[in-house]
Amino acid sequence: MASNAVAGRAVGTRLVDPATRRAALNKLLIYAVLIFGAVVSVLPFLYTVSVSLMNLTEATGGRALPTTPQWSNYVEAWHDAQFSLYFMNSVKITLISVGGALVFCALAAYAFAQMEFPGKSFLFTLLLSTLMLPEAITWVPNFITVSWLGRISPVPWLNNWPSLTIPFMASAFGIFLLRQFFQQIPRELWDSAQIDGSGHLRYLLRVVLPLSSAAVMTLVLFGFVGAWNALAWPILVTTTPDWRPISYGLLSFLDEAGALLHLQMAGAIITMLPIVVLYFFTQRHFIEGIATTGLKG
Amino acid sequence: MLLAYSFLAPAFIIIGLFGLFPLAFAAYESTLRGLNKIVGSYDGLGNYVKAIDNLIYILTFWIAAALVYYAARTIARAIREHREEQTDALRWILPGFLTATGVALFARFVFILLPEMLLIPSKLRGQANTQEAFRSLVVETWWLPKVQIALWVAVVLLAAGSAWGLHVNRKTARDSREPVYFMPFFSAGIGLIGGAALLWLTWQEINAAYAEALEEGAGLEIWSQIVTISAGFLLLLVAWRLWESAGQRSSNTGMALRLVGAVAMMAGAWVLIAELPRVVNAGDEDWWNGLMATVFYVMGTVPIQLGLALILAALLFQKIRGQTLFRVLYFLPYVAPFVGTAAVFRIIFSNRPTAPLNGLLDLFGAEPLLWLSEPAGIIEMITGGRFDLGPILSGPSLALVAIMLYGIWTYVGFDTVIFLAGLGAIPNELYEVADIDGAGGWAQFRHVTLPLLSPTIYFLSLYAVIGTFKAFNHIFVLRQAAALGTTDTASIVIFQAFKRDTRYGYASALAILLLIIIMVITLVNNRIASRRVFYG
Amino acid sequence: MNSKRMWMLATLLVAALVLAACPAPAAQAPAAMEEEAAAEEAMDTGLCAPASEGPLAGIDPRGQTIVWWHQHSGSREEKLSVIVEDFNANNECGIVLDAQNQGGYNDIRDKVNASTASGEQPASLLVGYQNDQAFYQLNGVLADFDTFIDDSTWGLSADEKADYFASFVEQGVHPVFDGQRLGFPPNRSMEVLYYNLTWLEELGFDGPPTTPEEFEAMSCAAAEANGDGTGGYILRDDASATASWTFARGGNVLNEDNTGYVYNSQATIDSLTMLKRMLDDGCAYFFTEGYPNPEFAARRAVFTTGSSSGLPFYANDMVTIAEEQGRDMDVWGVTAIPHTTENPVQNIYGADVMITAGAPEQELAAWLFIKWFTSPEVQARWVEASNYFPTRAATEAHLSGYVDENPQYGEALALLGYGAYEPQLISYQAVRDAAETAFNEIMQGADIQATLDALTETANELQEELMGEVE
Lengths: 297, 536, 471
Fold this sequence. Notes:
Helix content of chain C: 40-55%
Strand content of chain C: 5-15%
CATH topology of the largest domain in chain A: MetI-like fold
Radius of gyration of chain A: 25 Å
Shape of chain C: globular
Largest interface: A-B, 117 and 121 residues
CATH superfamily of the largest domain in chain A: MetI-like
Number of domains of chain C: 2
Largest sheet of chain A: none
Distance between the termini of chain A: 29 Å
Order of helices and strands of chain A: HHHHHHHHHHHHHHH
Oligomer: heterotrimer
Helix content of chain A: over 70%
Structural class of chain A: mainly alpha
Strand content of chain A: under 5%
């Protein structure tokens, strides 16, 4: 990486002036770009936060900042949107679907990346083609599927966790993403793993997954965001509050809050906080490149 | 091999139920008409004709031709290898074709079973809606003679095909250098059957259309249009090939070839310009406008989104202070619920003279703009409306551009995270080696990072193109009536047909057309990428 | 990620699955209640016994549990649940109503259509607009209200029938489906003009406008006072607004035999000509960032038009903003859309309730709830909870206290007798979108006559196209 090289050279040749100057200049440029980008991407978001702390006059008056932050907006939004009622539902739904997606996508991606079997490219094309249908078209057939599965299985699907989680336990996106990363793992590792007598499953768990931790974390993260923010499908398959997710609370609250922009914003920010926290903790996995040497099956 | 299938099984069961079934459902629905009916009356290609008029016949004809061509090429290659390399390819013909026929018959079985199954809800409506009633209806439908016959014919052929294949395989297994030719003949068989079926359907439909027109005493120009438009495209194709091959020839022949190519191109373009607009005008105007808006949206968002994300990811991968903070900041737009951010963008891009962006324009002494309420194309606006540019050259409306900016703003964070993961998968040692070789920052990026990141780039570009082609939420929440429909992309048109009008058949036909477009682009993308993607 | 962590994840997943598989206790509650109710029933057989004659003979509604899918959320939902609890505790048939919010109107519609497609039984009671009724009935999902209304045991008396506002109940009758009555009005709303009286008086006017000319003059005066492009009337591109202005000039958007659209009548042309002139003169402006009530409350608009169901929100915003700005609240009110006709003609709209076809006992029980819910006493309670308009004239007698407290509501209530309604044709949802686009085209400078001619043509084509798909 650019700065790795620059930093490495700078350490070795501390006394050479032009190199350090170039390094400093490089750094400055990097910071300038990053800060500019950060401002652009955060400004609309900061405005959301700002509005969420305003009173009604300020929120509708085109002000940039509140005079006194109205923290009570958050309390009001939390109560009115009944978030406490739906919060645990969302946690459960998200855990089940992300956990399932991780297992099933990893298995399938491994088969596509590291194994040979007839019909591989055909099946992969089939997989990709499922991504190409607009979502609006899929709701009715998928509703039929979950409704019928619920009537022939011992567990009801509608108004229950299966309809909210099982359809998301395998996605073409996740399989495709993981396959791309699994494919980059050198074949020699598999050869040496075989010599050690390890089978595919063991190799997947011990070598492939640890080496692809960044991709796995990405999948977890996006699975989480998808499940957490899902709206149209959960509303369609639930009729009672028992399994309704937090996004339903937000929606019905937005309906009620109507013109009250400040409360809307407060509600929106509350729902996204858990994801930000999760990302904060997973992003460590993206920091450094991996060391493939010295790994054994 | 068995292990591979068992690894795939759980994911494919779920994807089969919630990904492939909707596909089959849409394909089936697209041949029906009827409001709010999942089992309407059969209408052949009627929905497609309504959407794109006679172009559908040309489309099905060419898809069929492509399938047959693909099959012929695959068979020809196997035969050539059979002859030149003394392989025993030909004995795979029968098992391959048999299995292909079995699969085709199985598809037929699905489309025989599906309508019968979908009729169950309407049968249930008269009686007590209990689980038992439902189950007995399912069982009853399953045991219908025509369903059973279709099923067993398919199963028998499939079993015969694969048994034969296994038998051949066992005979050849001893000679390990002999490649297995099952898949080529299998896919060739699928191509031939699919192509033939499609041709037959097209033929039927065209004849029916002529018969109907004859009854009404009107003339039709389907055949003439098929011939002229196909000829136009063929000429363009020929021109392109000539142009490409000209580069490899000596200057004189090359010159001549280019000349011929240019003539062919002009002729082809002339035919198309003369003929295409007539067909387009006869189709669904909203649909064509939607496709145009979609193309604008894809071209305006994907390159910018990916370029920005790549730069940001490369920079964020450096060892710099505040790395964590930056990463979190860039990710925020993607995780924020779009109901919240859409409200903010509605304010930013408001048409009020005092709105944030208009205030900024005012600072520079510029006139306020209508932003989300502006239906005029941006190129038209830049040129001050002096030229009559027509709908395509006017470019996307300012309203659509504002929505694109919103889309880019949201998805840069998504792309950046995936790029970061890709960077994270590059082994450190490679950089160390490059360091020792004295490669500078740019050289490292060019020769180490980019090639090793290519699987990620390939993944993201494919995913972004597919995603933007069917982009919906961002557009739907920001569209305003004042933009006069210039922001309605294909997915919006499909949504309205499906949800608002409950025209399931028509909406499904539109969705299938969109799917064909995305698939063609994906295939082209794959061809380009296959030369450039590098897996460790 | 090492295998230990993988195992942890797997265990977590299993734990979550187990957790999830435990049946939710709430699901069993209604069944238990039903049993109790049935037990009670056994003791007093006299009440609510099945009719011995007529089409509903022998159908026993007692002890039924029925589900109602509605769109009321937040405080309205809470107040509704109090009324429903009262019904559940006190109705003599032991019927238990389970009122469930299902999101917005479109969500309910999606649910009903998906349920129909999959063979699930939708709720016994649904909320939805009149054109939804037509869509549902294509699959025979709904029951005919007339069966119940005309029944000698369970139905309404002649006096009761006459008490419902005729224009409200007419809307649910569908000539396309043999004149079946597929919807019944639980409440209504009305397109009204909101005005800021204090401000009007400051500007030298002595009251709200009654004619379009007065309305235009007042808007321009207020806009001039603000001087920044705001101040006048907030334009509304919604199709209901266009219909309302047309009604107020004695026109209609439906043709005479109720089978197609007429958007190019003189009334519509005159209305849009006036609005376009007001926009050009700066007396009206677009506000596209959300609902207009805060704008109105902050004195950036002297007039808005909109549904009367917005009344509580306007009232709330007027108080809040006056408080926040430390001034006395402006006196405001609602009145009829400025009209050229002698009496006002008001656009009255609102969703109906529908009964889904199912077990006869369920249907009857659902009707008994609706009958109770539209009785004057209950309507009065519902009005106070929701600010909607009642559907029976006799309700007014129970509302005097409420009207005293909410003078604006009283002003609108007085207009109930002047109702007109929008088309209930199957294509109306699509036509509404086309009408909105046409409105915007005109405001952006397109020729009014030509645009409205084109809209009329498009609208009728849409109707024809959709009817062409009906079989």
